[in-house]
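Why run this: before we spend reagent on co-expression, it is cheaper to look at a predicted model of the complex and decide which construct boundaries make sense. The entries below are exactly what would go into the expression plan.
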Amino acid sequence: MTLNREISDDQIIALLNQSAQQEQGFRLLMAKYQERLYRHIRRLVIDHEDANDVLQNCLIKAFRAIDRFEGKSGLYTWLYRIASNEAFTFLERKKRKMAASIDGEDQLAAANRLRADSYFNGDEAQALLHRALTGLPDKQREVFTLRYFEDMGYQEMSDMLGTSVGALKASYHHAVKKIEQFFKNEQIR
Amino acid sequence: MDNRKEILDELSGLSPRLRDLKAKGDGLTTPEGYFEGLSDQVWSRLKDSPKKETVVRPMRRLWRLPYKSGIAAALVLAAAALIWLNRPRESAAFDLGALTPQEAEQYILNNIEDFDLSMLVASRPEEIADPAGAGRTDTLDSELDQLLDEYLEDVDDATLEQILF
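The model came back. Tokens follow.
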């Protein structure tokens, strides 16, 4: 497994582009990135089953589009964008299904999902944080998640998202303030 | 690691609560052995569902034969409309200067729907620009007002309604 993770992106892409070795390339790609992608998706959709569906769809899309990967960005950046798109599309579809366009309802639904999810072992404060996150706009939520949970620097984030460092800082600060306010409101209740 | 320290320092100023909570992580766990079997699952899904045909990009699709004639027709119509809109017309500024009072009255009566008073005044910019000629502008205004009054007195209700609406 360790060997798989040390294989370079170029080697993986080369294997994926040879039809006889596609399966090997794909399995190496998954071994290298599946956990990181899963964690990113899971923080956005919260529920494990949902994250599993989104991750599988993301990997299938990536495999089918690998011939369009131009190498302008890193392989993980490319996969990350596919994963984010899939996750936000999934959430949008789910929101429409539930007809819960009001933030409060979203947060309530998220809280219920979290309680029902047996793969959550956090405390009340952590659950509250996830509820607060579901009320944020997509961009702020993504930026907050990358910085807060994945310890990502602004420059790296900028390269990954194609957004200026200044805009990212503003998004993150805004998100933190909103979450802080959410905590205060919940304490008052 | 440097990022982590920087993020914690940043949070100290923004939200000490979130700084303290950060150490706990996200609380999200995965089923045991989840990742071990995942690649088999995804690979079998890939084998079972054949790759879809490449989608033709919308702009390319537009250039397919059935659409070409439509686009060409639209372009011809747009060009014709531009030519029609930019066709040479009588210049109000030029014609008014050369008209006799009778001709001017007739002109106004014929074109009352197309021009309002401010446009007619603006058609004599030399008088507006020259303060010494301000009286002439007033004269023109009063003449026009008089002409309009006369016209309004003579015109029947049906015609007036037609002009106004």
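Residues 83 and 112 of chain B are 25 Å apart (CA to CA). Residues 53-87 of chain B form one domain. Bring this page to Monday's planning discussion.
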